[in-house]
Design brief:
The chain is α/β, with parallel strands linked by helices and 349 residues long. The chain folds into 2 domains: 201 residues, Quinone Oxidoreductase, Chain A, domain 1 (Alpha-Beta Complex), CATH 3.90.180; 138 residues, Rossmann fold, CATH 3.40.50.720. The protein contains 11 helices and 15 strands. The strands form 3 sheets. Strands 3, 4, 5, 6, 7, 14 and 15 form a 7-stranded mixed β-sheet that branches. It has a 6-stranded parallel β-sheet with strand order 10-9-8-11-12-13, with helices on both faces. It has a two-stranded antiparallel sheet with strand order 1-2. Helix 5 links the parallel strand 8 and strand 9. It is globular, with a radius of gyration of 20 Å. The N and C termini lie close together (11 Å). It binds zinc ion (2 copies). One zinc ion binds next to helix 2.
């Protein structure tokens, strides 16, 4: 911080190369805390936002939604937290008061805030964390800032998708499409509970990484030949296909890899502007297939997720392949749409 200014990754037009700019440090509201950002991850959703696919983003904008850091300042209505505490928060900062929050379904909160979407995000030295009372999570002593940052979006999202939405059990089969941060997280979580995993990614380097995370069979595309191979490998088809990328053409192919009564779980964002998928309803009805969305994770689920990571010794940190700074994060953000990167890139602002 210089005076009340800070460095941030900033853009004022969608699809135009962002710059690192000196901007005002956020002035926080009564329900917020100000975070000194220590670590923040670059996610494909940041790329969607930069491309103009997210209707929540108002220009100019600072992206970034998975983060961790230390509390720098505390709003008047926030109780029980102290300056300097090491914290994180889920990327959905739920209001804590609406119909869904009161039912413990904060991941679909009606009044949710999302740093890096509904307001300026964490690709900056400082971040306002809104609805802090309902969303702040203290980091266990042994957890690094980098691992905590990845939990906020990609690992947390994958945890909810595999454990709560897909309800996967030991001995079942899972096909993961896309071996970026969400895909690799889903792989680690599934392997931890004894699920057998196949993976698809257009990037051979990403598939190599997937193999080290326990994916048994690997494919560069999903076509009739590979669908047959996946069906043979799993006996009758997989129990669950998880799309961690989000492309319209993947839904129908994914449904064809499922065994009867199987589930397709959509995790990767698929904005309407990218195209609306078509599918065989005949197959959906005849095979009693299920299609579910999965959106982030509730703050109160963190403790269970952290316990899971400890109990199964899930090597979350091993998917972090690159660490960079604000300036050098810009090319990575731009290339997120091209599947050229594998693993997770973290920024230390
Ligand atoms: Zn994300
Ligand atoms: Zn709510």
């Amino acid at each position: 911080m210089i005076g009340n200014k800070m460095q941030a990754v900033y853009y004022d037009q969608f699809g135009q190369t962002p710059i690192v700019k000196l901007v005002e440090v956020p002035v926080i509201g009564p329900g917020s805390v100000l975070l000194r950002v220590r670590s923040t991850g670059i996610c494909r959703s940041d790329w969607h936002g930069w491309m103009g696919h997210d209707k929540d983003i108002a220009l100019p904008h600072v992206p970034g939604h998975e983060f961790s850091g230390t509390i720098e300042e505390i709003g008047d209505d926030v109780r029980g937290w102290t300056i300097g505490q090491r914290v994180t928060a889920p990327f959905i900062q739920a209001c804590g008061k609406c119909h869904y929050c009161l039912m413990d379904e904060q991941q679909v909160c009606e009044e949710q805030e999302q740093a890096g979407f509904t307001y300026w995000g964490s690709f900056a030295e400082y971040l306002e964390v809104k609805n802090a009372q309902s969303n702040l999570i203290e980091l266990p002593e042994a957890m690094s800032y980098d691992v905590a940052a990845v939990m906020g979006c990609r690992f947390g999202t994958a945890y909810r998708a595999v454990i709560d939405q897909a309800r996967m059990k030991e001995g079942e089969y899972l096909l993961i499409i896309g071996c970026g941060g969400v895909g690799l997280s889903a792989m680690m979580i599934a392997r931890a509970v004894g699920v057998r995993v196949a993976a698809v990614d257009v990037n051979p380097q990403a598939l190599q990484v997937a193999a080290t995370f326990g994916a048994e069979i690997l494919f560069e595309r999903l076509d009739s030949k590979t669908i047959t191979e996946i069906t043979e490998w799993s006996g009758r088809g997989v129990h669950v296909c998880l799309d961690a990328i989000g492309r319209p053409e993947l839904l129908d192919g994914g449904l064809r890899t499922l065994k009867r009564r199987g589930s397709f779980v959509q995790v990767g964002l698929l904005p309407d502007v990218a195209g609306v998928p078509s599918l065989s309803m005949e197959r959906l009805v005849g095979h009693e297939l299920e299609i579910r969305g999965s959106h982030g994770i509730q703050g109160w689920k963190y403790q269970e997720m952290l316990d899971f990571v400890v109990r199964y010794e899930v090597p979350v940190g091993t998917m972090i392949t690159h660490i960079t700074d604000l300036k050098n994060s810009i090319p990575t953000l731009i290339e997120m749409g091209q599947n050229r990167h594998f693993g997770v890139t973290i920024i230390h602002p």
